[in-house]
């Protein structure tokens, strides 16, 4: 019965579109068992899926030294309308490795001080816009997406969208997220015709085409690599041969990867952090007080201080690390096994799905104290992780996110400014949940009240 139902996705008109309305975040379908167990195998209509949480198996999958666990073709199908043949959606191979090296070298060439300066300047623009609302609800989640797109594009390509383009780009990306139902492709038959029909039914091609048109107009209207010294990524693409005649679409593919992967994970994490802080005024005030102190100054070491003995830099790191733990931007890494995998009590035949899920690992009962609680102190009190794969918000191994350092600098600067200059408050409305189709972005978007924060007395900070 289930197989027959899944098989209709690729045959009946609008079947995928209708089913997509009822199928949401695939991680919500897993229940509580994976949070206490090490391996769970699910029987899908046409394939099996093994969720692995034990360190040994998860590490083998993520490091994948022998190429046995390529990225699933499901991800390629979902992302292709947007990033084409961009590196993020590819299963592997020599071309992918070389492109990743180009991307990693370009990001490493951006001076950290430049990232910090650009981030501070652009963040101030958006904060001014929120404060102009005089306490009325502000679209914090949407604007954090726009802000992080701006930061990434200025730092890598030396230019940014106009305000109107930025708004349209982030609106389209939100719709793309809502429609990109990984669950449908997991349940459906894997033949190309079925997947193509599902993608068409979900309307991803139309949205992707408009987003690509916006990126093409803004970032490929001039010859690639001639935007000046700040266009580090554009120049790297040109040096790698993407500026040659006929390569515009491939260049656009990698620009799309840089913009989308570079901004979405940061924006999602910061949106969740702002929401948590808005709902806990004591935490928000304690963090603001710690972060406002002079660099290297410790919070007074007394029993009433929440972050006693920690510096503002320590607190900033703890806040963002805890947001990444509870709300990892990539909720699950979906792979396919090209060889039979020996599990605890069974085997997983080749050509099935195998999943390593940060959403599960980061809350696993065997790895974490207070696993469901936002408790940044854990990063100040427990310097060592219980297992290598217990905390992998940026992945690990050869496929680790090359922009992790960029993201950490950006998150620290944005969080510092938001905490020291603003006060957030919750608004009425539905409680956001991780969307989970592609990333863990909040759904609905975070909307908060924003008011100016009075400067704290400096003497309260010093030990």
TrEMBL record:
Similarity comment text for this entry: Belongs to the cytochrome P450 family.
The organism of origin for this protein: Xanthobacter agilis
InterPro entries from the UniProt entry: Cyt_P450, Cyt_P450_CS, Cyt_P450_E_grp-IV, Cyt_P450_sf, Cytochrome_P450_monoxygenase
Pfam family, any one: p450
Cofactor(s), names only, from the UniProt record: heme
Stored SUPFAM superfamilies: Cytochrome P450 (SSF48264)
Keywords recorded for this protein, A-Z: Heme, Iron, Metal-binding, Monooxygenase, Oxidoreductase
Keyword Ligase among UniProt keywords: no
PROSITE patterns: CYTOCHROME_P450
Protein's name according to its UniProt entry: Cytochrome P450
């Amino acid at each position: 019965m289930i197989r027959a139902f899944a098989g209709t996705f690729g045959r009946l008109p609008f079947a995928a579109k209708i089913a997509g309305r009822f199928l949401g975040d695939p991680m919500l379908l897993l229940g509580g068992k994976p949070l206490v167990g090490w391996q769970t195998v699910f029987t899908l209509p046409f394939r099996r899926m093994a969720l692995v949480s034990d360190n040994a198996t998860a590490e083998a999958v993520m490091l994948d030294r022998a190429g046995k666990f390529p990225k699933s073709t499901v991800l390629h199908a979902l992302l292709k309308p947007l990033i084409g043949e961009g590196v993020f959606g590819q299963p592997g191979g020599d071309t992918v490795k070389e492109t990743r090296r180009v991307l990693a070298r370009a990001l490493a060439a951006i001076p950290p001080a430049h990232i910090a300066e650009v981030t501070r300047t652009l963040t101030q623009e958006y904060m001014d816009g929120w404060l102009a609302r005089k306490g009325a609800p502000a679209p914090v989640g949407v604007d954090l997406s726009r802000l992080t797109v701006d930061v990434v594009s200025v730092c890598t390509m030396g230019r940014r969208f106009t305000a109107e383009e930025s708004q349209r780009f982030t609106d389209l990306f939100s719709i793309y997220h809502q429609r990109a139902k990984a669950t449908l492709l997991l349940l459906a038959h894997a033949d190309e015709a079925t997947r193509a029909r599902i993608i068409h039914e979900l309307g991803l091609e139309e949205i992707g085409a408009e987003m690509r048109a916006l990126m093409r107009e803004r970032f490929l209207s001039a010859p690639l690599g001639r935007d000046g010294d700040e266009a580090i990524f554009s120049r790297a693409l040109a040096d790698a041969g993407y500026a040659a005649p006929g390569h515009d679409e491939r260049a656009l593919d990698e620009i799309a990867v840089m913009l989308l992967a570079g901004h979405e994970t940061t924006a999602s994490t910061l949106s969740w952090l702002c929401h948590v802080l808005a709902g806990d005024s004591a935490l928000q005030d304690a963090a603001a007080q710690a972060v406002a102190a002079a660099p290297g100054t410790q919070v007074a070491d007394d029993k009433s201080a929440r972050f006693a003995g920690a510096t503002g830099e320590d607190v900033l790191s703890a806040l963002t690390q805890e947001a990444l733990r509870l709300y990892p931007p990539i909720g699950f890494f979906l792979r396919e096994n090209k060889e039979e995998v020996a599990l605890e009590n069974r085997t997983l035949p080749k050509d099935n799905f195998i999943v390593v899920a940060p959403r599960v690992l980061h809350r696993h009962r065997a790895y974490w104290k207070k696993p469901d609680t936002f408790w940044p102190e854990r990063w100040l009190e427990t310097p060592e992780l219980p297992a290598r794969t217990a905390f992998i918000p940026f992945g690990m191994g050869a496929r680790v996110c090359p922009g992790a350092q960029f993201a950490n600098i950006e998150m620290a600067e944005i969080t510092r400014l938001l905490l020291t200059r603003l006060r957030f408050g919750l608004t009425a409305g539905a409680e956001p949940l991780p969307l989970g189709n592609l990333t863990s972005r909040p759904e609905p978007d975070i909307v908060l009240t924003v008011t100016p924060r009075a400067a704290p007395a400096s003497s309260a900070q010093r030990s």
